[in-house]
Design a protein that fits this description.
The chain folds into 2 domains: 39 residues; 134 residues, Rossmann fold, CATH 3.40.50. 33% of the residues lie in helices and 23% in strands. The chain has 4 helices and 8 strands. The protein has a 5-stranded mixed β-sheet with strand order 4-5-6-7-8, covered by helices on one side. Strands 1-2-3 form a 3-stranded antiparallel β-sheet, with helices on one face.
Length: 184
């Protein structure tokens, strides 16, 4: 009698597990499966490049080196003055400051950014027309770009050599040798 009782309990347990599996599959099939998202690839926004041609690698706005992604042709990414990417795969120091500034460039001005370097005054960005934008450090980079864009769009200014953006609420400028970039 005990063997029959054990067999009955085993069948009951097996039936319960089967019911749970069927319910779980039904829930998945009718409710979860339809709402499952398709996988997507997130492509990081590139701020600059190191190198030229097929050897060039991209650099994200956070300073991470990205290999294997095609670099945009238009507008081309500004080049960092580095011979090769750092071995750790991430920029540090002055190069990271440059990338943070380049990562904040507004889309309307992106085509006019030629290069960046770290000089005596900190991060400097050269526009395709030869105008030098002096950022100092990367703090308030977006505000500094906004100030530069406003100054470059000022119709009373027709030519200049540099724009000092250390204090974005009071940018200063000087010179008259370089024309302003065309209005996009």
């Amino acid at each position: 009698m005990r063997g029959g009782l054990r067999a009955g309990k085993a069948r009951f347990a097996l039936a319960a597990v089967a019911v749970i599996v069927v319910v779980a599959l039904a829930v998945y099939w009718f409710f979860v499966r339809e709402g499952t998202d398709e996988p997507t690839v997130m492509v990081p926004r590139l701020a600059a490049q190191i190198g030229e041609g097929s050897e060039a690698v991209g650099v994200t706005t956070a300073g991470a080196i990205v290999r294997g992604l095609p670099l945009p042709e238009e507008p081309p990414l500004p080049r960092l003055p580095l011979e090769e990417p750092p071995k750790g795969g991430h920029l540090r120091g002055p190069a990271l400051e440059q990338v943070k500034v380049l990562g904040a460039v507004p889309n309307a001005l992106r085509a006019y950014v030629a290069s960046s370097y770290y000089g005596e005054s900190g991060v400097d960005v050269e526009l395709t027309t030869g105008i030098e934008l002096r950022f100092g450090n990367a703090s308030q980079a977006a505000r500094k770009w906004h100030a530069a864009a406003a100054l470059l769009a000022d119709p009373s200014i027709t030519a200049l050599d540099y724009v000092d953006l250390y204090a974005p609420s009071r940018p200063s400028y000087g010179g008259s040798e370089h024309e302003l970039p065309p209005v996009p």
